[in-house]
Amino acid sequence: MTTRIFLLLLLFLIVSKTNAQQKDKPNILWIVSEDNSPFLGCYGDTFATTPNLDKFAKQGILYKNAFATAPVCAPSRSTLITGMYPPSMGTEHMRSSYPVPDYVKFFPRYFREAGYYTTNNSKKDYNTTDQPEAWDESSGKATYKNRKAGQPFFAVFNLNVSHESGIHTSVPTEKLKHDPEKVKLPPYHPATPEMKHDWAQYYDKLEEMDRQAGALLKELEAEGLAKNTIVFYYSDNGGILGRSKRFVYESGLRVPLIIRFPEKYSGLAPNTPGTVTDRIVTFNDFAPSVLSLAGLEIPSHMQGKAFLGPKEVKERTYAYGFRGRMDERTDLSRTVRDKKFRYIRNYLPHKIYAQYLEYLWKAPSMPSWEAEFKAGRLNEDQKKFWQEKPSEELFDIENDPHNIHNLAADPGYKNILLKLRKANHDWLIESQDVGFIPEALLSKISETTPLRDYAKSGKYELNRVIETAEIASSRDKSQLRELIKRLSDKDAVVRYWAVIGTIVLKNDAAPAKTKLNTLLNDQEVAVRIAAAEALLAFGETDQPVQTLSEALKSDNQMARVQALNVLETIGKKAQPAFENLKLLLKENPRDSDYDVRAAKKILETEVQPLR
């Protein structure tokens, strides 16, 4: 009897202590808007109508240098939910489902295990296999109101009104609140009626987003919870008009971030209300930071660092970002940002910025911009988007916020270029970036091994791969002999990048033709497709097109996408592959599939060469 009483008393004390600890833990609320750069009054945008967030900024801390890791939602959200850098896990390509290792948990699960009530309303889009156990509720009706009495919560509300899809259908001009004729366009956009209208309509969407954010803040107040809740407001990536979302410029990666700390938790705040900070923070840091605020352990596998709470670390020097495949178009870029400069390395510089994307082109502004280019009416800044990329880009953010004056070749900035080039290279190695594996091979590896595990297995020759990719993208003719040598490398990824180097060099790589022809029979389909692309540039047609046509029958979707990207560039020369193109569409009717989108585009413009 005495033992039973003792055990009951001990249980009571444990429960009481747990409840007391939970009551001392802050609630955390995330208000996440979609697809918007800092187009807010509190960030100095005088055209914006955002009174609620402007007021919120006076109550909180505004971050001038907050960055998404990716300029598009799914890879960006992969970062947020894991505290990991997507190129380290293979989750960098837009909308994929490559698995992550078992130890990589969606971080709300740690809150839930610590007694928090976790809710998500309602977008996920985490670019990997879902982990529904992270949430008590995840739906369009999810709310912290359903928690137990006194239970702390971590809640996310996603506001999709500012999403890119909001301008796909044009509102009549007379119904717009923002005047298209008063929009201040970025210098790279032509002043077409469609462009001005899309911008004005977008500002209307941001005004509605601000209203919705304000309603959530008022609801929190009405529930009597504002005094116990730390509130984040931020956007999931920049956007939305052409050359912003999906592109690794300020317009795609810089996001608004405002955090409000109630007086009760002012000791956790890095500064006082109404403060503006230039501290660099990235989405990699969000998960460890909120775990720190809640007094929870930060898992050792997380690559981000806490910028808030008791586990706050020294300010980071750089924000890293990336661009992989965007929907049906392959590409690869990496970027590094410090407080003054942005460096970009384009590893597929032969691909123009403006690769056609079915979804992007739904905005009326995009066809209008393209029409102006074809008509020869663009100035130098406006037509760069329709041309091949430089290997490297360097921008002085303070003096060139729109990133239009590339300083990479300016001798006066050589030391800065070298410093940031090295920072980029070092991060590729440190983070074990698997994004340099062509996706056709990457997807095959992922069927048996999480890509993070593969990177750590010793099978991935990372240093040699990165070295080859840097040589390949450099446009340095003196490296041709080395590229030809690496066309015979034992590693398929190295062979792939050596082929890319010959594509980038164009006619200067003619001495590689004989070896490239042998690679049409390479054991890896990604290498075969790349070799076909290289040989097409040298004027060969029959065998390269046959190789690409055969790739369309592959059971590897990413191989099909890679081949379709090449076929679209050669216009009527692609006709021998049309039978397999039509067969692909017959067997894969879903318009949402990226290979289907690319195939349809080729057949719609059969005899027209790609823009």
Automatic annotation (TrEMBL):
Instruction: Please list which residues make up the signal peptide.
Output: 1-20
Q: Does the keyword Cytoplasm apply?
A: no
Keywords of the record: Calcium, Hydrolase, Metal-binding, Signal
Q: Enumerate the GO terms in the molecular function aspect.
A: arylsulfatase activity; metal ion binding
Output the PROSITE patterns linked to this UniProt entry: SULFATASE_1 (PS00523)
Residues covered by the Sulfatase N-terminal domain: 26-295
The family assignment reads: Belongs to the sulfatase family.
Name assigned to this protein? Arylsulfatase A
From which source organism is this entry? Dyadobacter psychrophilus
